[in-house]
Specification:
Strand content: under 5%
Number of domains: 1
Structural class: mainly alpha
Number of strands: 0
Largest sheet: none
Radius of gyration: 19 Å
């Protein structure tokens, strides 16, 4: 991995938890419940929070843009969410949820000048992101920017997160991996246990069939472990993902990037230290 791509990956590792806390914070579930969404599991609010920038997206649109979820699972939550609350109402509640969650997690740091400095730097990167052909990044980038620095930080982190995700999807398609094959091949290199990937709703039969397709391509062994070719393909996917995510970060100079790492560190620690986020996810952070 080149030095530049290593820096791009490091920034993703720092920003991802700052975005993802939305899906796990108690304040998010309280706001979801106030909208009328079910909160006995996280998926009704997850699909609503993440899909709302797309407008009243149907299940097909969400399957296409989210990529890794089983269509049967998506059908359960989309477009049912929009019969409970409009996308505009969901977006307003999403912002309230982030505001409340950040105030709980970050405390006085919410109003600290260091947070405002970090937000301004990340916003510059997000504004520099080319969202052409990147539907989730484009939808979030088109939303009005908030005023408060901590919300600017979350919004910018979200644009960049979805920008990277859209690029990752393109890399997977370019590698000839369909949604379930993407998960099977990722599990095969130890990115996370197969049980973690089961959260995406694929049946045991669909998982087995995808595994067999990858075995026939020489990417997996019969017991589901990646072959040398399988590991090489996944490494190529990650390289292409990092390359596709790199351009916006060139909006900052080297000293500014290092300053941003310094500024984000305490915020990252606060979120990770909260225990809200799972230690193992389908993103494979820290594993690949």
């Amino acid at each position: 991995m080149s030095e530049e791509l290593g820096r791009v990956r490091r920034m993703w590792h720092l920003l991802e938890p700052l975005h993802a806390v939305l899906y796990y914070a108690p304040e998010s579930f309280e706001e979801a419940a106030a909208l009328g969404l079910r909160t006995d599991e996280r998926w009704p609010s997850y699909f609503a929070w993440r899909a709302a920038p797309l407008g009243e997206a149907g299940a097909g649109r969400v399957v296409e843009t989210f990529h890794s979820f089983s269509p049967a699972m998506v059908d359960e939550y989309v477009p049912a969410a929009w019969s409970v609350a409009s996308p505009d109402a969901v977006l307003a509640a999403r912002r309230r949820a982030v505001d409340r969650a950040y105030r709980t997690l970050l405390g006085e740091a919410v109003a600290a000048p260091e947070t405002a400095e970090a937000a301004a730097l990340v916003r510059r990167v997000a504004v520099a992101a080319d969202t052409d052909g990147r539907p989730l990044a484009a939808a979030n980038a088109a939303l009005p920017w908030p005023d408060e620095p901590h919300l600017v930080l979350w919004h910018a982190a979200t644009v960049l997160r979805e920008h990277r995700g859209d690029g990752h999807l393109a890399a997977l398609v370019g590698a000839g991996l369909d949604p379930v094959e993407s998960l099977v091949s990722f599990a095969a290199i130890g990115a996370a246990r197969p049980e973690v990937f089961a959260s995406r709703g694929w049946s045991d039969e669909e998982w087995r069939e995808a595994r067999q397709r990858l075995v026939k391509r020489g990417l997996l062994t019969e017991d589901g472990v990646a072959t040398e070719a399988g590991r090489a393909l996944r490494a190529e996917v990650e390289r292409r993902t990092d390359e596709a995510a790199a351009a916006p970060w060139r909006a900052l100079g080297e000293e500014e990037r290092e300053r941003l790492v310094e500024l984000l560190g305490p915020l990252w620690v606060a979120v990770i230290g909260s225990g809200l986020l799972p230690s193992e996810t389908t993103l494979g952070i820290g594993k690949v």
